[in-house]
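The instructor's notes for this session suggest beginning with a concrete chain rather than abstract definitions. Hand out the sequence below and ask the class to guess, before any prediction is shown, which regions might be ordered.
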Amino acid sequence: MNPDQVPNGFVKPVPTEEEKGKIEELRKLLGPLPEKLSSFCSDDAVLRYLRARNWHVKKAAKMLKETLKWRVQYKPEEICWEEIADEAETGKIYRSSCVDKHGRPVLIMRPSVENSKSMKGQIRYLVYCMENAIQNLPPGEEQMVWMIDFNGYSLANVSLRTTRETAHVLQEHYPERLSLAILYNPPKFFEPFWKVARPFLEPKTRNKVKFVYSDEPNTKQIMEENFDMDKMESAFGGNDDSGFSIEKHSERMKEDDKKSAHLGSEDVSEDEHQPHGMNEEKESIP
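After discussion, reveal the predicted structure:
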């Protein structure tokens, strides 16, 4: 890809002629789409699915079809704050007021303050947070940062079932959305769990995961390379002592919901709006 400057200073790659050809080839496999679903099939979106499947057009088309089918059924863009507010109370996942040096949104995750035993509720809240982070991406950017704070983490917080489902949703329906994941101060007992969890992750995703320990010399360098530490939370070695406030976070999310309300204002009929070939029980791509 060739670089193209966008307003926030990020250099956006421009598709090569070969990549443009693959985009068109994939669009032909998708077939006609209703306008509502077409908005999730921009060139940038198609490129993310192609990259996720190593430029294998048929595999990428199958993956994207599955995501469109999932969006019709799950309706992630229609999840509102009131629906998931209970899941958010402890600050287990939230979009930070801090962004990275490219202006990309940062999702803070604190597994030690999990407040729900409902995997369905946990996944729905995760999806809400992902949609909100995507809504707040700067121009030309497609990716975000995850910061996972292991303070207070114990064996009681380990759930392979939830990890598998989380990995499935993120990798199958939000491919190439992660630029960097920082695991901050994971305890020693997390290492064997990580070895078990690694196979659930695509190699590309695994390579984006960085272990950071506050007592290791390279920690400050890793953090300073990616963030303005004056705006980073003190829990991650930054100078912002404000911490998580459910009241302030709630107001931010309600405002964001208002901004995105028009996107979900039109009802999508599952029968009318299935992409070509999606009404079959099993997908078959010629």
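Then share the key points. The radius of gyration is 19 Å. Confidence is low (pLDDT under 50) at residues 266-274, 278-286.
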